UniProtKB/TrEMBL annotation, chains A, B:
Transmembrane segments: none annotated. GO terms for molecular function: DNA binding; DNA-binding transcription factor activity. PANTHER family: HTH-TYPE TRANSCRIPTIONAL REGULATOR MJ1563-RELATED (PTHR38465). It comes from Algibacter pectinivorans. Keywords: DNA-binding, Transcription, Transcription regulation. This is HTH-type transcriptional regulator. InterPro entries: HTH-GbsR_regulator (IPR052362), HTH_MarR-typ (IPR000835), MJ1563 (IPR026282), WH-like_DNA-bd_sf (IPR036388), WH_DNA-bd_sf (IPR036390). Residues 28-77 form the HTH marR-type domain.
Amino acid sequence: MEYQEAKEKFISTWGSLGTLWGINKAMAQIQSLLFISTKALSMEEIMEELKISRGNTSMNLRQLMDWGIVTKALIPGERKEYFTTEKDVQELARHIAKERSRREIKPVIKILKDVSSIKDDGTEKTKELIKQTKALHDLAETADAMMNKIVNQEQTWITKSLMKLIK
Amino acid sequence: MEYQEAKEKFISTWGSLGTLWGINKAMAQIQSLLFISTKALSMEEIMEELKISRGNTSMNLRQLMDWGIVTKALIPGERKEYFTTEKDVQELARHIAKERSRREIKPVIKILKDVSSIKDDGTEKTKELIKQTKALHDLAETADAMMNKIVNQEQTWITKSLMKLIK
DNA sequence: ATAAACTTTCAATAATTACTGAAAGTTTAA
DNA sequence: TTAAACTTTCAGTAATTATTGAAAGTTTAT
């Protein structure tokens, strides 16, 4: 496999994986393109490389910046804006985990807490609802806490912890 | 909050969370309905409760069965088929983690391995592609291994391990 | 073998989500 | 202040994904 083929394979695979996990294709592809690029890229270059429109590129770059995994890299003397992604996979994982926790997991935990706190009226179905949502709440909270804990350590800690678990 | 409201809130929240993570709404809602039900439900009952068509119910039940988290519960003397979901949250988490690993993570790890194994032609861009996809490969493999490790223990082990990590 | 009771399939359609391109907006240089 | 160089926005459209409903299929009872 040659460079060009490998690059395309990587970008398109990453795009499909994103889709499978609720992330849009263009967003995943822009990120992966930046991830293997040796330099910051302009909007023009991204559009050209991925064959997507200016508007699409602009919107997805903004989203990636909102997620904190892409940043503007101002190149001295250049008028255009250039973009780079976090290049360290562990930092990348940190950002993504942190954001998904904040945006998606935390709110659901909150609702599970509310739902599992309804008044027990003594009926079987109410008891079951309370029991099951409480179990889900506890699982979600434990998993989320673990995630955040891992994510808030210095980078090397992650590998060490995981290794400890695995071996 | 009364039972009915809590129930609806739970089911619709679970549906939205599913959507956010690439699982279709009906599928997530059927599962959550079964999860808090005190008994196995027929297709009729599910359709009625969630206001979805027979075809949709049938297809999504099949998918849930493919994922191994819903099973047919044959009720003696009944012609109809009844369905239940895994009621233990930890078993549920096990199944989901295991399946997502098998279907989605493993194939991507394979591709990352291929891509990161291309011949180093000495150019900077090739070196970068190799370096970055290798880093991603290692991260994915470590995370996946951890997942599978956790997932293949007896149930209580999970909580213990997570607790150890957190405290 | 027939029919009733049920489930599955799938073409048509609806709903959702992503993408485009051009107009409007912004920034910088002269 | 003007205009060139660039970015953002957003209404319209395209692509994708989910859902319906009815016909076809299956199973069971008689």
